[in-house]
Design a protein that fits this description.
Largest sheet: 2 strands, antiparallel
Oligomer: single chain
Distance between the termini: 69 Å
Structural class: mainly alpha
Radius of gyration: 25 Å
Strand order of the largest sheet: 1-2
Shape: elongated
Length: 162
């Protein structure tokens, strides 16, 4: 039992007091706050990848099945579930392209790597135009077709660097 004079001191130290998570807005018991933050970080990290296994694990962790502190904000979980759903559709369509060997996908860093060279003809400045080297048109079209399939199925803006 706590006497009235000790209530304020108790509330400041009570492990069952609810404190707001500044990232998601949920009220979490103080004793579980670090655990809540760890699960939230896991979900947010997974959202920065194209890794369906990582996303699936994070969604499960954030569902609150383990404990109430694991329960993530509905908006965050909904976003993770939406991304996972899109990946479930895209992955079966892009994996045959990856197996051909023209492109590789870094699922953790969300990068598409072109594995085959795309040869261009040499140009002298100030000519900044680009033309595929004669005789490589078919190979180049196949490689760029594979890149296009990946871009079309992931449906996110991408920048080609090289």
């Amino acid at each position: 039992k706590i006497v009235a004079a000790e209530v304020a001191d108790h509330e400041a130290e009570c492990p069952c007091r609810r404190i707001p998570c500044t990232r998601c807005g949920l009220q979490v018991q103080a004793r579980s706050f670090d655990h809540h933050r760890a699960v939230e970080t896991q979900v947010r990290r997974a959202l920065k990848t194209w890794s369906l296994p990582m996303l699936t694990e994070a969604i499960l962790a954030g569902s609150g099945r383990h404990c109430r502190a694991c329960k993530m904000a509905p908006k965050l979980l909904s976003r993770a579930e939406s991304v996972a759903g899109k990946l479930r559709v895209a992955l079966p369509l892009v994996m045959p392209v990856v197996r051909r060997g023209n492109v590789e996908i870094d699922f953790d860093d969300r990068k598409v790597i072109i594995k085959k060279d795309i040869p261009f003809t040499n140009r002298s400045p100030p000519d900044a135009s680009a033309e595929f080297k004669a005789g490589t048109e078919q190979t180049t079209a196949t490689v760029l077709g594979d890149v296009a399939i990946v871009i079309r199925n992931f449906k996110v803006p991408m920048m080609v660097v090289g």
